[in-house]
Amino acid sequence: MSGEPDGPQDRLRRFATIWSRAVFPVTSTSSTRTEFEAELLPLARRLSEMLRARSFDAEEARAVGAALVDAHCTDPEALSQTLDCVDAYLVLYCGEGGDPEDLRARSARLQHAMAAGFAGALRARTLAEQEAIAQAALKAQGVVAEALHASEARFRAVFEGAAIGIGIADLDGNILQVNRALMRMFGIADPALGGRRAMEWTHPDDAPQVWRLYQELVRGEREHYHVEKAFYRPDGTVLWTNLTVSLLRDADGTPQYQLALMEDTTERRLLNLRLRYEATHDALTGLPNRSFFFERLEKALNAGPGQRFGLCYLDLDGFKAVNDSLGHAAGDRLLVEVADRLQACATAPGEMVARLGGDEFVALTTGPDTRHEVDELAGRIMNALLAPVSVDGRELTVRGSIGIVEGSAGERSPAEVLRSADITMYRAKSAGGNRFELADPEADARVITRHGLTTALPAALERGEFFIEYQPLVHLGDGSVRGAEALVRWLHPQHGALGPDRFIPLAEHTGLIVPLGRWVLEQSVLQARLWRERYGEGGAAGPLRINVNLSPCQLTHPGLVQDTVEILERTGVAPDALCLEVTESALIGADDDLLKPLRRLAEMGVDIALDDFGTGYSNLANLRRLPVSVLKLDRSFTQSMQQFPADPVDLKIVEGIVALAHSLDLAVTVEGVETGAQAEQLRILGCDTAQGWYYARPGPPERLHELALVDATG
């Protein structure tokens, strides 16, 4: 029988129990452990809810961190134990039913936010304590001054009994007396501190104004000052204090002594430094994290005239395969090794390496001349990745793609620089990876424009920004218009009319090609019905047909046949009025499952045209098994025919293709006809129909009306 908790509440209580057991020994509280566990239970419930929430609430997570301080968990070890418990047990006991990777990522973000909230609350509490101490110090100052004038015995009681360190020196800085609290802070036994003078207590971290304020005080120009100051103890360790120094005057107002009040803040400072480190460094690799890197990058970009920067954005090639095949633990060890190698590459002044997340790293170099330095840095990084990494007895080959951005400070924001580096890195990855590329503003602009078009596509379809132009299909024998090819356009609000080459690949990538293709098909079939209503079904030229392009994504969509049938039935258009064009490359090596919907449409009477024929290097014997009735010959075969006489080799190729197509009972259409000589050569070779600028450019449906009217009237 399992000993694990049965329900969510049991699991939550179990997590709270583990948490309280880990933190209770280092918590200053008068509560029992059971009472302390009851205090942590609501916090555990809030963490559980944030772990499974739809959106991450950083403020709520910081509030939990702050609540730990309210529960007297102010020891640095309490925060460390808390973060360890959340990391090890929160997902285990409170993440049932969620995606493990998402939950772990959410848990990591919770830990960072909790640490930030803890630090903020502790700082606020510290400030409150400092204010109370300052008030006590001022009160003590008054009491001491009065005691000097009234009662040495009363002064001695206050002096020795104070919880803060107190020291008295003359105006020359000679230390006269110190109390036991100050002696404990310095770890000394000699009340006179060996006759030392105040001016000897310098420290490299002293702020510039510390000794300026001191000189003003001993000259009688100020009554007191308050600073944060470090001191060396006799054993060489550093004591950090909140130091208040006041001037003591005699009854006549003449300066006599200086009184120093010290609060030991060493542990609090170390905790703040630790929290700062955890908030600005990656937990896995120890490298600076994204937030720390952005601080450095912003500083580099605001360095002033004459300063430059160079940035290398690294993404490991094939890292996902390591995680998928060997597991995330192996992937983490690989990242740690890569981080160590990158750290060894950036040791010069002005250089740093950071981990942005996942397998993405950045290296930054700054200075007056980074043009060559950043290239050298990228080269060192590529060389550092050459040696295999041993993980679990396996030798893993590490490769990476790097995008480099270099420029003058003050020209771009950190977000713009990182975006350019990211774009450039993906350009290097698209070129095969294991290389670095330099940023190209024109390439960046194209990618940004492409991204903008991609995000605008769905709304564009809803807003009706697409329209269709039609290019006529002309019979080469008698010159009659037989139909038209539908060509979709996008009337973009900023970029104007865009051709399909600008957005069809984006629509295919996002899946929007299916609804867009359905819209084009429906609008084109409706136009075919209008043409047939206007010109009738008969005539020497026959009924006008509409050709509509199908993308590879539409071919694999299960609703292709049903959508086509519904559109034809709804519009009342016969199947023989429609011709669907499929590129040859989409059908190379196509199996029966892919061809099945095309065969069904062909059996209904819909013509299938093999578009761009001759560009896919397909086996001509495959034509026998494809359900096509039309070959659309690619324009590359007929370009030489724009001049007379044409290249005899091209003539033989086209003649052979036409003969083969006709022997298979296939019609031949030619694209890109631009001259009369070209049209005449194609007619002689036996091609059936053609389209191109020689007849008409793509345009509105009314233009086809005009061409058809001219054809009908002779």
UniProtKB/TrEMBL annotation:
InterPro entries, sorted: Biofilm_reg_signaling, EAL_dom, EAL_sf, GGDEF_dom, Nucleotide_cyclase, PAC, PAS, PAS-assoc_C
Residue stretches making up the EAL domain: 450-712
Residue ranges of every copy of the PAS domain listed in the record: 151-221
Source species: Streptomyces violaceorubidus
Database matches in Pfam families: EAL, GGDEF, PAS_4
PROSITE patterns: EAL, GGDEF, PAC, PAS
Gene3D superfamilies reported for this sequence: 3.30.70.270, EAL domain (3.20.20.450), PAS domain (3.30.450.20)
SUPFAM superfamilies, per the entry: EAL domain-like, Nucleotide cyclase, PYP-like sensor domain (PAS domain)
Protein name per its UniProtKB record: Cyclic Di-GMP phosphodiesterase RmdA
Domain PAC: 225-277
Domain called GGDEF: residue spans: 307-441
